[in-house]
Amino acid sequence: AYAHRSRIVKTSTEKFVAVGTVDDFPRNGGACVLVDGEQIAVFNFDHKDWYAVQNRCPHEKQMVLSRGLIGDAKGEPKVACPLHKNQFSLVDGHHLGGNPEFQLKKWNVRVIDNTVQVGAKAIN
Description:
Order of helices and strands: EEEEEEEEEEE
Helix content: under 10%
Oligomer: single chain
């Protein structure tokens, strides 16, 4: 499900888009938001550590990553695609199986005053 409608939040160095409140996102899970026409999967670990990557799995081109299982691989936060279990780093979007063609786009994400904000542009 999509979180609330997004709105631009201006900062001195980067624009962020408000995509909902902390409670709009499942604890230890993900949700999909729509920012400027792009589906972004936003994940959180105990509502403390937040990550945002493209929702589209590069393997089968399906919009499913927000429904993937999250966990860690040797301490690195990851998401596993719910369809074929491809695993991706939530830190930088790389494919944990080593396929460079499966790189995910990544966005900065932050929480200010209980509002989850995603960077207006991908960082990679």
